[in-house]
Design brief:
Layout (H helix, E strand, L loop, with lengths): L2 E6 L8 H9 L8 E5 L2 H9 L4 E5 L7
Antiparallel strand pairs: 1-2, 1-3
Length: about 60
């Protein structure tokens, strides 16, 4: 399964409380912070709520085997 690399690009100052909560639930908290999350519908829905605050990339996986 693919992973998503989510980076917070804008501040939550001035954002609605629900949007701040979504950012916290994504594991972010400050500008420039990055978190790798599984590509699931729940995560995609959360990202759809805050597209103006984050940037999303597909994470590259390294095979060590």
């Amino acid at each position: 399964m693919a992973d998503l690399k989510v980076t917070q690009t804008r501040s939550t100052i001035g954002a609605k409380p629900k949007q701040r909560g979504t950012i916290r639930a994504l594991g972010l908290g400050r500008i420039g912070q990055t978190n790798t999350l599984p590509d699931r519908p729940e995560i995609r829905g959360m990202l759809a709520r805050v597209p103006h605050l984050v940037s999303v990339e597909t994470a590259t996986e390294k095979d060590d085997a």
